[in-house]
Amino acid sequence: MKRLKNLISNLFRKQRLSISNPRTNKELWYIMISPLNVIMTLLSTAILMLIGVAALAMFTSVLDLIPGYYGNKSRNELLINIEKLDSMNKRLEMWQVYYDNLSTILEGRTPQTLASMVGDSTLNLKSDSIERLAEDSILRRQMELESIYKLNEQEAKKSRQIRFTAPTKGVVVKKFNPENKIYSVEVQPLPDQAICVVNDGTVVLSTWDPEKGYLLYIQHSDNYISVYKHYSPLHKQSGDKVKAGDVLGYTGVAKHSSEKPGIFRFELWYNGTPVNPENYVTFE
User: Fold this and answer.
1) Backbone CA torsion sign across 171, 176, 180, 183
2) Is the peptide bond before 274 cis (omega within 30 degrees of 0)?
3) What is residue 141's DSSP assignment?
């Protein structure tokens, strides 16, 4: 107990700290200070240094200079890279759909369109809160489909620098109707009328189908593909380079005099999505 009292009293007891000249032994400067003052001074200095270091780390980019430590700049760069990676993934998915559709077209099947990938955007609300009408869903679906094809055709018109010519002349008897999965226009031409290439390109598929007759797919610039169906005979093969106006074949001829000549079908695709051929070609 006595030692503790002596220790406490020594903490408060002031000592003389002086600076003197060793040659003359003259005191130059002095200060009266206690051990408690020394301890408080050291603690205050340490606290101020910690506060300064914390402020420096929070409000400056000094942490970016430390190897292996992720500062504000590194975090911002990480967020930017994550956004770029997400954008690249979306574009990669779009290109994958495009190439899958191209492969489907080359196989003579109907590809998946953007419209088929769009679901009903109505919120999943509880059935007892709002009653959905069938007419509302039909109208919403029609508007979404129309907007998809209009936007795609607007993009096609802005991007294309090529001009299309009519593959043949005749009366359009069935129009483009993607809502009902009709991606072609049906033209009633004259018998033995030439079927011509609409623009320069390369034949990517030339085949015959028992239901669709002769089929020919031509890849053009700017990601356009033209499709020709129901005509004979076939004058081009896969891999052939073609020019606008080249004759591919001729329209079909009726078997009997009372029958109408064969129907010619024409499709135009842009970036894997069908577009209305009548917006690019005049048939009549």
Assistant:
1) positive
2) no
3) H
* Residue 13 predicted with pLDDT over 70: yes
**What spatial distance separates the first Cα and last Cα of the chain, rounded to whole Å?**
118
Compute how many other C-beta atoms are within 10 angstroms of the C-beta atom of residue 221. 11
Judge residue 239's burial from the number of C-beta atoms within 10 Å of its C-beta, 0-12 exposed, 13-18 middle, 19 or more buried.
exposed
Write the burial class of residue 69 (CB in 10 Å: 0-12 exposed, 13-18 middle, 19+ buried): exposed
> CB–CB of 216/196 below 8 Å?
no
Supply the Cα-derived Rg of the chain in whole angstroms.
41
How many angstroms separate the CA atoms of 155 and 177, rounded? 19
The H-or-E segment that residue 47 falls in is helix 35-59
- Over residues 144-190, the pLDDT tens digits come to 555 555 555 555 555 455 779 999 999 999 999 988 889 999 999 88
pLDDT greater than 60 at residue 6:
yes
Helical segments of 127-227, H only: 134-159
- The CA distance from 232 to 199, in Å, is 20
Q: Which residue, among 188, 185, 190, 189, has the nearest Cα to 174 in the 3D structure? A: 185
Alpha helices in 60-202 (DSSP H): 72-106, 134-159
Residue with tokens 């997400």: 86
CA distances from 86 to 93, 98, 99 (A): 11, 19, 20
List the structure tokens of 265: 């079908």
Neighbouring C-beta atoms of residue 143, cutoff 10 Å? 10
Distance CA 251, CA 280 (A): 21
Tally of CB atoms within 10 A around 273: 24
Q: Dihedral through CA 175, CA 177, CA 181, CA 183, nearest 10?
A: 50
pLDDT at residue 219, rounded to an integer: 95
Q: 198, 212, 209: which is closest to 248 by C-alpha? A: 198
